Amino acid sequence: MRYKIFGDKLPGLTLQLDAGESIYTQSGGMSWMTDNFQMETNVRGGMMKGLGRMLTGESLFMATYTAKVSGAEITLTSAMPGEIRALQLDGQKQYIAQKSAFLCAQPGVELSTYVTKLKTGLFGGEGFLMQRLSGTGMVFLELDGSIVEMDLAPGQRIKIDTGNIAFFESHVKYDVETVKGFTNILFGGEGLFLSVLEGPGKIWLQSLNTASFAARLTSFMPGKGG
Question: 65 lies in a domain?
Fold first, then answer.
């Protein structure tokens, strides 16, 4: 499989597959493709896993595209301004990603549900459920805004505003922390809680907070805001 990520802040991904190679994506995820693919749509992994995917922002049904000839091309595009990142999974490392991050992957990659701690789920901004990526093969993530990669040392902690976590290695500790100070809570604009990631491990942060972006857009709609 060969791939090309194109575009600037509204990127797309073109995959060129050899005969018999496959990728899967959520139902409706394909933008365009050449006329030499076989498409199969099903509840990948069974109903329970499908329902779990729905709770993390993906569709119940997943579509698998298999190339019938070498050189077949399929293109998927981003729904939000941001970046598309490729990850090569080796069967050892696992990653935890924000909701709706999954774009597509080879069949050897498993997309499942990651359940956070109760406190983290209530106040961390991502909810109880995130996406776990495991297995072997290439997976492509659709992320928001510009991406910053950090390598945290053991015990190193970074505090993050709600919604700015893109993804992180699964052994990184994810927690929440209360903002201190009455005036900070009321007027600081960060809310009551901040997410905390603690090393060791790699993390990827995104500059665009989708919830804040949507709120800004809503303020310009007729009958909203000023």
Answer: yes
In-domain check, residue 223: no
Residue of 83, 64, 89 whose CA lies nearest to 74: 64
Q: Residue 224: inside a domain, yes or no?
A: no
* Burial class of residue 103, CB neighbours in 10 A (0-12, 13-18, 19+): buried
pTM for the structure as a whole: 0.81
Residue 204 is part of a domain; what is its CATH number? Answer: 3.60.160.10
What per-residue confidence (pLDDT) applies to 179? 62
Average pLDDT of the chain?
A: 82
**91 strand-pairing partners:** none
Query: Residue 189 is which amino acid?
Result: G
